[in-house]
Design a protein that fits this description.
single chain, 2 helices, alpha+beta, 4-stranded antiparallel beta sheet, 4 strands, globular
């Protein structure tokens, strides 16, 4: 079974750790959740207080991710810093298992 997103034509996926001003955390989280690139977002504790998993859709290149980070993430009020890590390979995907 192939797990490389690029070979499936699904673009690039990455983890983002955002440092957001505490007074802007709720609004920034809600704005982030509106982005179609975001697969998961959650408030956390620590310096990076908002975490997200994102996936670009159109291109398996970093160009689309760069544009997303600089324009959409950069445009969210209160974001002070972003750390980004590309996902090289999924080793486990979230699955739904109904309770018995």
């Amino acid at each position: 079974m192939q797990h490389d997103r690029e070979s499936l034509g699904h673009g690039i996926s990455a983890m983002l750790w955002l440092s957001v001003a505490p007074s802007a955390l709720d609004a920034a989280g809600r704005k982030l959740a509106e982005h179609h690139e975001v697969r998961f977002a959650g408030a956390t504790t620590g310096q990076a207080n908002l975490v997200a998993t994102v996936a670009t859709v159109a291109s398996p290149s970093t160009g689309e991710l760069y544009t997303y980070l600089s324009e959409k993430i950069g445009g969210i009020d209160g974001v002070q810093a972003v750390e980004t890590a590309l996902t090289l390979r999924h080793v486990k995907q979230l699955t739904y298992e109904p309770s018995p």
